[in-house]
Amino acid sequence: MYLNLRYTVFAAVALLTFLLLIAGVFHSYWWWIGLPVFGGLTLVGIYDVIQIKHAVLRNYPILGHMRYILESIRPEIRQYMIESDKDEVPFSRQDRGLVYQRSKGEEDKRPFGTIENVYSSGYAWLTHSTAPVKNVDTDFRVHIGGSQCTQPYDASLYNISAMSFGALSANAISALNIGARKGKFAHDTGEGGISRYHRQGGGDLIYQIASGYFGCRNDDGSFSPEKFAKTAADPQIKMIELKLSQGAKPGHGGMLPGPKVTEEIAEARGIPIGIDCISPPAHSTFSTPLGLMEFIGQLRQLSNGKPVGFKLCIGHRREFMSIVKAMLKTGIIPDFIVVDGKEGGTGAAPVEFANRVGMPMLEGLTFVHNTLRGAGIRDQVKIGAAGKIITAFDIARAFALGADWCNSARGFMFAIGCIQAQACHTNKCPVGIATQDPLRQRAIDVGDKSDRVARFHRNTMHALGEIAGAAGLTDPRDFMPYHFMFRQNDNKFLDGNEVYPYLPDGFLLLEDEIEELSDWYSRWERASAESFAPPTIPHGPFAKRVAVTK
């Protein structure tokens, strides 16, 4: 009986096909109208029974295909029918809706109060002032460029984070860059080089260089000073960003298969058409902290003094301290550091990397900020923050923890129509953003979407001005940890200064060490400007260090 039920649909379709065939022969040819449909299903059923790759289809011919159909639309079913407003997969419906409303210029207010559980662990809130201020001018800017920089840049406090042409379509890049020009903020090129669509848009660019050295490489994949100098001379390029790692897949390289290397991608990256394009996990130009600083100095000289910095997701904290020691030893101080959280996005990443590798943004940002303070050079380096930053609250919290500006990739993708289909790696993006299919990307109207990009930025900055004003501040960069409270459990919360404190300026260089910071001194001692490698391999927990008084 059970066996018969498994094959009922197949048997019924086959029988109906046979009856239609007989009826058409002996009664009327009109019966054959349905023959292609049911005949085709019968052939599918026969194939299902004899194929050996899918056990479900062998046991449930024809009917088993429903399982694969439902599986293919599972993200859409969840997103539109099951997901609550607060489910983060990876962005909540509430956050996505906020971006859509602000980019379209629609009402972005909420009635009836918060839907957040304000008494749950992890909830954070901003402390407001009894004497709020009204910030009329919300075009907030940060001056990027230290004493070694001769072409500083006044950047918006909110910019488009790194997304390469190739990962994004031509129309998506055009919409983002034209929107950046309209809104007077910056657009990070991503590691895929500067495409014709970046240049046509005319928006300010942050030229990102990664291990593939796209746009400034020799034929063997090594760095080309001559090509870099020529590219960096473009006045549209305002800053140079050296990518050491990114949040979604730190320490992971990549390969773009040859068939996907089109003429336009090859032009942007400076690689042959149709040949596999390799992005190594590590840079070939340097292998030590001192080498990294020397390379940054070289990039600054070749770019005629434009701001040069690097982007990374924090991994081994000792290694970042090694980089800071190299800054002190060489005297070469980067103009900026972008801290990417492991919650950052990407077109495609191994699940293990996306879920379990790298430090989240809040902890990474705090560590970088305090390490630079400890080394006495925090005032010489601006810090950018990236990693799921799309609301004014996200930006304000990052400023409180040490950021000078913020970047967002997926926030601006939502602004041009991303629906979080999570099909970025399939070349079948339903809205034409993460695809190279010319028919799919036609869905993006560049003029309309660029207006949305500029409008989202403008409305977010306005919201940032309002939230700063509520705290009694005239500049969002004045946010400090004590402006925020963090709930630890149902009946306990801590001041931001307790959770994310600012450590004393220059404490890593003091002769009389601070006992409470012994772990910092221990890690600082193990760091070396000459090498990223650890001085010793621990086979257990590090021994607790007692602060030294000299």
Automatic annotation (TrEMBL):
<keyword id="KW-0472">Membrane</keyword>
<comment type="similarity">
    <text>Belongs to the glutamate synthase family.</text>
</comment>
<dbReference type="InterPro" id="IPR002932">
    <property type="entry name" value="Glu_synthdom"/>
</dbReference>
<keyword id="KW-1133">Transmembrane helix</keyword>
<dbReference type="Pfam" id="PF01645">
    <property type="entry name" value="Glu_synthase"/>
</dbReference>
<keyword id="KW-0812">Transmembrane</keyword>
<dbReference type="InterPro" id="IPR024188">
    <property type="entry name" value="GltB"/>
</dbReference>
<feature type="domain" description="Glutamate synthase">
    <location>
        <begin position="158"/>
        <end position="473"/>
    </location>
</feature>
<dbReference type="InterPro" id="IPR027283">
    <property type="entry name" value="YerD"/>
</dbReference>
<dbReference type="InterPro" id="IPR013785">
    <property type="entry name" value="Aldolase_TIM"/>
</dbReference>
<protein>
    <submittedName>
        <fullName>FMN-binding glutamate synthase family protein</fullName>
    </submittedName>
</protein>
<feature type="transmembrane region" description="Helical">
    <location>
        <begin position="7"/>
        <end position="23"/>
    </location>
</feature>
